[in-house]
């Protein structure tokens, strides 16, 4: 009788713990899928590591999986990848002095072209 009672308690405990474990695994899978689509393959450069079959992309996917399983967050993974492979590996590079030209370059170019055409129209 005691064995049956222990099995019932174990079943109840398992039914309580199982959804928590499933939710944690689901959260990790969502983060993993998000991260591998936001990281650029350094070999292909026009694909993310989810789409690429290059050996480096396969290694990066396994590294991201390892970090997600360790409980690392999105910011840590992005920082790790950008420190190791430069900001080019991220499709959305952070605003920093190293890549300032990426952020202000288009506006600077637009200003220069507008100034050129404005001066040209004044001469006529």
Question: What's the architecture of the largest domain, going by CATH?
Answer: Orthogonal Bundle
CATH superfamily of the largest domain: Cytochrome C biogenesis protein
What is the CA-atom radius of gyration, in angstroms? 25 Å
CATH top level of the largest domain is Mainly Alpha
Number of strands: 0
Which quaternary structure do these chains form? single chain
Euclidean distance between termini CA atoms: 103 Å
Average pLDDT rating: 81
Provide the CATH topology of the largest domain: Helicase, Ruva Protein, domain 3
Largest sheet: none
What is the global morphology?
A: elongated
Number of helix segments? Answer: 4
Share of helical residues: over 70%
Strand percentage lies at under 5%
Description:
It is a single chain. With 124 residues, this protein is an all-alpha fold. The protein folds into two domains: 2-93, Cytochrome C biogenesis protein (Helicase, Ruva Protein, domain 3, Orthogonal Bundle), CATH 1.10.8.640; 96-124. It has four helices and no strands. Helix 1 (2-38) packs across helix 2 (55-69). The protein starts with a helix and ends with a helix. The mean pLDDT is 81.
Brief account:
The chain has 124 residues and is mainly α. The chain is 71% helix and 0% strand.
Per-chain topology:
Layout: H1 2-38, H2 55-69, H3 74-85, H4 100-123
Helix pairs in contact: 1-2
Search tags:
71% helix, 2 domains, 0% strand, mainly alpha, elongated, 124 residues, Helicase, Ruva Protein, domain 3
């Amino acid at each position: 009788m005691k064995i049956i009672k222990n099995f019932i308690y174990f079943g109840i405990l398992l039914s309580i713990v199982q959804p928590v474990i499933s939710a944690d695994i689901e959260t990790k899978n969502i983060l993993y899928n998000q991260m591998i689509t936001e990281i650029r393959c350094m070999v292909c450069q026009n694909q993310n590591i989810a789409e690429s079959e290059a050996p480096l992309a396969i290694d990066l996917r396994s590294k991201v999986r390892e970090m997600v399983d360790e409980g690392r967050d999105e910011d840590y993974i992005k920082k790790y990848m950008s420190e190791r492979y430069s900001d080019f590996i991220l499709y959305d590079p952070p605003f920093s002095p190293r890549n300032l030209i990426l952020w202000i370059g288009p506006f600077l170019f637009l200003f220069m072209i507008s100034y050129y055409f404005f001066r040209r129209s004044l001469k006529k």
